[in-house]
UniProtKB/TrEMBL annotation:
GO terms for molecular function: cytoskeletal motor activity. SUPFAM superfamilies: Surface presentation of antigens (SPOA). GO terms for cellular component: bacterial-type flagellum basal body; plasma membrane. It is a peripheral membrane protein. Residues 29-96 form the Flagellar motor switch protein FliN-like C-terminal domain. Signal peptide: none annotated. It is found in: Cell membrane. Residues 1-24 are annotated as: Disordered. Its main location: membrane. It holds the Pfam family FliMN_C. It comes from the Bacteria. Keywords: Cell membrane, Cell projection, Chemotaxis, Cilium, Flagellar rotation, Flagellum, Membrane. This is Flagellar motor switch protein FliN. It comes from Massilia polaris.
C-alpha cells in the first residue's frame, strides 16, 4: 500500500513550521514481512545420488522421528515447534523460542 499524504496524527511541526512525519521505528518494524518456515531436517547427498532420486525415493534426514522441528525466520533458527492440524491446514505449535529476542530490536 502506498500512502501519498501523512495522516494528521502522524505529523508534527518542525521549528520552521513545516510538517514532519513522526518516526516510530518499532511500529514500522512490526509491518516488515518475514518468512516463517518449519524445517523437518536435512540431508547431505552427492550429485550422483541427487540425479538418481525418483518419485518413490526415500532420503534419510538428520532429524529423529517425533523430535521437534526447527522454526526459522528468513532462514535463521529462532526456536522449535511441532506440526498440528488447524482446521484444513497444517499449523505449528511453538515449543520454545530460543533465538527470538525482539527486545534488542526495539531498543
Amino acid at each position: 500500500m502506498i500512502i501519498d499524504e501523512p495522516a494528521a496524527a502522524d505529523t508534527e511541526q518542525t521549528r520552521s513550521g513545516a510538517p514532519r512525519r513522526a518516526r516510530d521505528l518499532p511500529q514500522m518494524m512490526r509491518k516488515i514481512p518475514v518468512t516463517l518456515t518449519l524445517e523437518v531436517g536435512s540431508a547431505r547427498i552427492s550429485l550422483q545420488e541427487l540425479m538418481s532420486i525418483g518419485a518413490s525415493s526415500v532420503i534419510a534426514l538428520d532429524a529423529l522421528a517425533g523430535e521437534p522441528l526447527v522454526i526459522k525466520v528468513n532462514g535463521t533458527p529462532i526456536g522449535r515447534a511441532e506440526v498440528v492440524v488447524a482446521g484444513e491446514q497444517y499449523g505449528l505449535k511453538v515449543i520454545d523460542l530460543d533465538g527470538l529476542n525482539l527486545d534488542l530490536i526495539a531498543s
